[in-house]
Amino acid sequence: MTSRSNRTKNIAAGTSARVERISGWERSSFSTADLRKLKKMGLLTNGELTRIPGDEAVPNPPEDFRVTFSDFLLRGFSTPVHEFLRGLLFVYVIQLFQLTPNSLLHISIFVTLCECFLGVHPHWGLWKRIFYLRRNNSGSAIYNVGGVCICVRPEVGYFDLKFPDSVQGWRKKWLYIKDEPTGAQLCSLSPVDLSQEILRRKSWDAEATPEEIVATESLGLRIKSLQNTPGQELSGVQILAYFLRVRVQPLQARATPLWMYFGTGDSARISADLPVGELEKLVRRFTSLTKNDVVPTTCRVEPFSAAHPIPPNHQILSQLPSLPEGGEVVEQFIIDDESQDASARAAEPAGTKKSVGSSDKLTESASVSDSSFTHSVPPAASPEGRKTKRSDGENSGESKFSEPVAEETATDFDPFGVAATPLVKEMIELGTRFAGYRIEAENLRGELLHAQEHIKELEQRLEASDKAHRDAKTKIEAAEAKAATADDLRVRLNDAETTLSKKEEQVSRRESAVVARLETQSNRFLKKIGEMYTQNQGTDEDALLDALSVLEMNCSLARDCLKYGRAALERIFPHFFPKAVIPEKFEPLAKSFLEKEDPVLAHRHASLKIGVEGTIALVMASGEKVDWAKAAAVRGLNKNSWTTLLKSAKAYSKKFLAFLDPSSSSTTSTAQPEVM
User: What is the spatial distance between Cα 419 and Cα 626, in angstroms, rounded to a whole number?
Assistant: First the structure.
């Protein structure tokens, strides 16, 4: 296998100078609208497990909460986290927020590939044969948020899944999510440590051990077969679309692996199926597919599931990276910290090509070389043979291993760098058997421990069931003993009769109370109305019915009174409120006459004004000369003088009234005439 040390030979002199470190944090733009979208997709179900950041510029999560990004949730991340992801973060000594969205997608696709198409748990040895880590720099700047990229090794023929060169604005969409460790976890995601710098460590370039190479050789051949079987080629886009379609988060801890997935009723599903348009939109968003490219809705290779189980003789491999519970990892120490920033920008070996872009526009220029890889082709293939013609959008983003040849020879290319000599083949076969037996033994020991725990659990349940059976038997025997005695039955009968008598007494008292209350209310109403009614003297002499009859008559009288009162008020309403609309209900109609200013008094004043103006008009029409200034200045007119004047004018009052006819519209007053 090509050593990673070859890359450092291309570092130019003077590139060891330190670069500027930038945190990358800024105030979160994650809003309630974003929260609703994620809940609609099933990515967030319980509001108590989510917090929207406030005005803080850097994260300050509540206790037991961790920082994540909405783009991480869309790409397969959920809590409680899968132990494979926990192990990666621990071995690489990085925090979740230091990865990029495309890196999270790499892990999700790898987990789906292992569980659905290889029929194994996510394998640490296989991971190291395919991926390595590098810094995600931009010019002379190092970003702590999204400062680490997971890249495919150039010499490995892995799925050529083209990611977009930038994920716009993902750093601004951060939120708090509660960490939910499972019962088997001794350690959850580590709390956020904003002071932790990104330091390149030996584990970033860790390669598979010879033992791991032997153990995973069959997996490598399986990947090659998946990519190159004519008519059944599996692409990275198909794997991505599959886990989005089945609505399972690959990076979430699950009770069962994906090869046991059994459809819509599976407990690992987060929501119902996405609409086809929404699914295609997400796939195009996560990849470089255009609107003209076809998004596959099915896989050309049927994934393992409950409907398509793993073959009986299939060997299920399992190897996790070291977990925090296991202690320190030798490959965690820092290597060449002074030049690591410059080495991240060094040129890749010739023949590489771009496969994964940066995670943000600011890192676009620095993400081309280290994240690229070459197709795996036999040494004898010509340069033209390296070109693969894509037939449709489904194959876009798919890197094939070498095309299968009719007959394998000793010089056939091995995608994982193992020489194909007879001696080596024999050693590989022996090593594979040994590693397989040892792994199988470890699996059997684990299954035995699990079976023992299950037996203990069953024993506890059986003991609890026996205890419940004994308690139930005791209660039944006691009940039978009580029911067997006639005295007990007589006591129960007497108790029932006593209880019934008390109930009847209570009902009688209640009826008396109801009658008394009805009579009281009837008497109160009759006293107010002033009319009395005789009760019905029937043969039954039922006081309750008599009281109800009186109440019914009172209610009828009240309804008639309200009806007549409304008719009267409606008749006089237009005279006092000529410009108002008569209220539809009685209460506001009656209240209109109870204002602070008396409407009747106002009406009288208006009528008096009409009379005065009419009298003045009569005097002026008579031709008599009157000094109106003196008339207006008259003061101190006593009652006797007033009475004398009225008597002298009384003989002419009918003529005055004829002139002051309220039906006349020739009055100069603006007031309405008073009703005669």
Answer: 140
- The verdict on 457 and 553 lying in the same domain is no
Residue carrying the six token digits 């094939």: 400
pLDDT score recorded for residue 139: 66
At residue 382, does pLDDT exceed 80? Answer: no
Task: Write the DSSP symbol of residue 175.
Answer: E
pLDDT at site 401: 37
Contacts of 69 (CB under 8 A, 6+ apart): 97, 101, 170, 171, 173, 174, 175
Number of structural domains found in the chain? 4
Residues 157 and 293 in one domain: yes
Token representation of residue 394: 């489904």
Q: How far apart are CA 126 and CA 323, in angstroms?
A: 17
Q: Is 627 a domain residue?
A: yes
Q: Which candidate, 273, 215, 248, places its Cα nearest to that of 112?
A: 248
Write down the pTM of the prediction. Answer: 0.54
pLDDT of residue 664: 44
Interatomic CA distance for residues 546 and 589, integer angstroms:
35
Residue with tokens 């460790």: 181
Name every residue whose Cβ is closer than 8 Å to that of residue 285 and which is 6 or more positions away in sequence.
Answer: 164
Q: Is residue 3 part of a domain?
A: no
Q: Which domain holds residue 526?
A: 510-590
Please indicate, yes or no, whether residues 26 and 174 belong to a single structural domain of this protein: yes
* Residue 636 Ramachandran class (φ > 0 left, ψ -120 to 50 alpha, else beta): left
